[in-house]
Specification:
The complex is a heterodimer of chains A (153) and B (465).
Chain A (H helix, E strand, L loop, with lengths): L6 H15 L3 H27 L4 H25 L11 H22 L34 E2 L4
Chain B lengths: L9 H10 L4 H27 L9 E6 L4 H4 L1 H9 L3 E6 L8 E2 L2 E2 L3 E5 L12 H9 L3 E5 L6 H10 L1 E3 L6 E3 L16 E3 L1 E2 L3 H4 L8 E3 L4 E3 L6 E6 L5 E3 L17 E7 L5 E5 L7 H5 L2 E2 L6 E2 L4 H12 L5 E11 L9 E2 L3 E11 L4 E3 L6 E5 L3 E6 L1 E2 L4 E7 L5 E9 L7 E10 L14 H23 L2
Parallel strand pairs in B: 1-2, 1-5, 5-6, 6-16, 20-28
Antiparallel strand pairs in B: 3-4, 7-12, 8-14, 9-11, 10-13, 13-15, 15-16, 17-18, 19-21, 21-22, 21-26, 23-24, 23-27, 25-26, 27-28
The chains are: A mainly alpha (153), B alpha+beta (465).
Chain lengths: 153, 465
């Protein structure tokens, strides 16, 4: 192995670029799309770090919509790549329809999740409270509706 | 209470059919029957007015005596009951026709046992019948004396007090005896150690000591419903006055109860005393001077004490009822079927006390409501408007589940109030959460950008060639 020189990184980048130039245009579009999604996810994380995590559901849905989009686009890229022998039997039309369907599901879920549904102080685990502590015995249980004992003789 | 009057609508529905009948005689008869029924129906409101309104006070009392001479020797007590509207039925305790109930209905609302020496009741009455009578919410006064039989003692034991086992023992007090002409054996006691309770003994303080001559009893420690109303002084003890004390007496000091009361969980009230003479005209009228005290009262406290306590026993005082339990969201009037977490709500209940004649507003500042789900999440003291209406408002806690409004009011001498009403509490609905939060706009923007991006990408990807 030769020693590293200052020319090596340049040569590396150059060879990468020349190799990438050979990539089909359709894959380049996907790469651009993935890059955009990851970039907006990073922006949101930075924004959350500055502003705080108050609308946490909204934050999650915003970031997850970006991540989900990126993941689905990467999956599409894997499937439509001609050099990938694993999916050589899968027609690209089928791969694209899968991509569209998964995106529809993803955005439906994101829309549903976008509202702030969980109040920070709201106690989700409610019924376990006091079940084992020293409560006075519950004499009538749950069928106690409207049972007003007014001691009429 | 008299059984509710029922109107049978059957005869009315028959009459139109009869009217269609062709024969004139039947026509006339049907007209007559219609008239009769109409007049009865018109008179019904008037008739029902003559029935007494529902009231918790006792009306019919059975008085069991050893000896009918007690009727005259204790006449002041009996007359005071009669003047308060009670219907007294005097019977000998061994009367063979004695019965408390007939056809499953109780014939009496209260029982006075002034028959200490009876070994066996006559008729269908026995220990179990007396206890059933109390268990069904009726009231009882037991007076024993030195001749108390095992039967009377066992009735008292079942009610939560134990009379002294020694049949010859009397309560003796060498310090707070009542001064009489001769020195005597100090078994006539001037007791003034009353329980401090206006509801039991009336608002007027009993000034003069109460004369007591009889046997001692102690409270059963396991029974927390029994109360000592008149306690013996610390110097009292229970022993046979005519023999020398060979061993220390079992019952001494203020553990001796002279008069006790019980309010059962079903609000039946029981009064137990070891002195039948306490109720007698002789003690009522007697002057009293406590040993060591210079003050001599012309009249003993017996009459006031016994009268006031009997008012309590027979539910003329201290009987509460709670009605109109209401709750609604703040600003609304209708009672909702369900609350949401963090709703503001108003709660109100009306509490009245029976005064012997009518329901009067009950005024107290210690009535509390609980918003309860296995433990109280909210406990608030209710404020009242002096007219019996108790009210408060609070915020539903941030917990959902099936809650109850609970009012549990147990105060010395008053009937216990136990009210509860179930109400579910739900979390926020999906559309009740905050929307369009400013801080979340970048996230909204990102989500919509991703959607737009997906659309544009698909377009470009499909048509780039």
């Amino acid at each position: 192995m030769g020693r590293a020189t200052s020319k090596d990184p340049q040569a590396l980048i150059h060879s990468l670029r020349s190799a990438y130039a050979a990539t089909p245009f359709s894959l380049k579009i996907i790469d651009l799309y993935v890059g955009f999604a990851v970039f907006s996810a990073i922006i949101q994380v930075v924004y959350m770090a500055i502003v705080g995590s108050f609308p946490f559901n909204s934050f999650l849905s915003g970031v997850l919509s970006c991540i989900g989009t990126a993941v689905l686009a990467v999956c599409l890229r894997v499937q439509v790549n001609k050099e990938n022998k694993e999916f050589k039997d899968l027609p690209p039309e089928r791969a694209f329809s899968d991509f569209v369907f998964c995106n529809l599901v993803l955005h439906l879920v994101i829309m549903n999740f976008l509202e702030e549904m969980v109040k920070p102080e709201s106690c989700l685990i409610m019924s376990c409270r006091c079940r084992w502590s020293s409560c006075p015995a519950e004499p009538m249980g749950i069928n106690f509706a409207q049972n007003i004992t007014t001691s009429m003789k | 209470m008299s059984p509710p009057l029922r109107v049978n609508p059957q005869p009315l529905s028959l009459s139109p059919r009869q009217r269609k009948d062709p024969t004139t005689t039947k026509m006339a008869r049907s007209n007559f029957s219609v008239l009769t029924i109409l007049s009865v129906i018109l008179l019904l409101p008037v008739l029902s007015l003559s029935f007494s309104p529902a009231s918790p006070s006792d009306r019919r009392l059975l008085v069991l005596l050893d000896d009918l001479s007690l009727k005259s020797s204790h006449s002041i007590f009996f007359n005071s009951l009669k003047s308060r509207g009670f219907d007294l039925d005097f019977k000998l305790a061994d009367d063979p026709k004695l019965a408390l109930q007939r056809y499953g209905q109780y014939l009496y609302d209260g029982l006075i046992l002034f028959s200490p020496s009876i070994e066996r009741f006559g008729g269908a009455l026995d220990l179990a019948a007396v206890l059933d009578f109390v268990d069904s919410g009726h009231d009882l006064i037991i007076a024993a004396d030195s001749s108390a039989s095992d039967l009377i003692k066992s009735v008292a034991t079942e009610c939560g007090v134990d009379f002294d086992e020694d049949p010859s023992a009397l309560v003796i007090d060498h310090r707070s005896y009542a001064v009489v002409g001769t020195e005597g054996d100090h078994t006539l006691i001037a007791a003034d150690d009353f329980i401090e309770s206006d509801v039991l003994l009336g608002e007027n303080k009993i000034e003069a000591p109460v004369l007591f001559k009889g046997i001692a009893h102690s409270l059963n420690a396991a029974n927390n419903l029994v109360l000592k109303v008149l306690s013996a002084s610390p110097a009292a003890y229970s022993a046979n006055p005519s023999s020398k004390l060979s061993s220390p007496p079992l019952l001494t000091g203020s553990s001796i109860s002279l008069v006790s009361v019980v309010q059962a969980r079903n609000n039946a009230r029981i009064m137990i005393t070891g002195s039948l003479d306490m109720f007698s005209n002789r003690f009522f009228r007697s002057s009293v001077q406590k040993a060591g005290s210079p003050k001599k009262y012309d009249k003993s406290g017996n009459e006031q004490f016994v009268t006031e306590l009997s008012k309590w026993v027979f539910h003329e005082r201290g009987h509460l009822k709670a009605v109109n339990l209401r709750h609604n969201k703040a600003g609304e009037t209708d009672e909702p079927a369900m609350y949401r977490i963090k709703d503001d709500l108003d709660f109100s209940v009306e509490i009245y006390e029976w005064s012997g004649k009518s329901w009067e507003p009950y005024v107290a500042n210690d009535v509390q409501v609980q918003f309860y789900m296995m433990s109280p999440y909210v406990l608030k003291t209710l404020s009242n408007d002096k007219k019996g209406l108790y009210h408060t408002s609070f915020k539903v806690p941030d917990v959902y589940g099936v809650f109850q409004f609970k009012v549990e009011y147990n105060r010395l001498g008053y009937t216990s109030l136990l009210l509860s009403k179930q109400i579910p509490v739900r979390p926020f609905k999906h559309n009740e959460y905050e929307r369009f939060i400013t801080a979340a706009f970048p996230y909204y923007g990102a989500s919509f950008t991703m959607m737009a991006g997906f659309f544009i990408f698909s377009f470009v990807y499909l048509y780039h060639k």
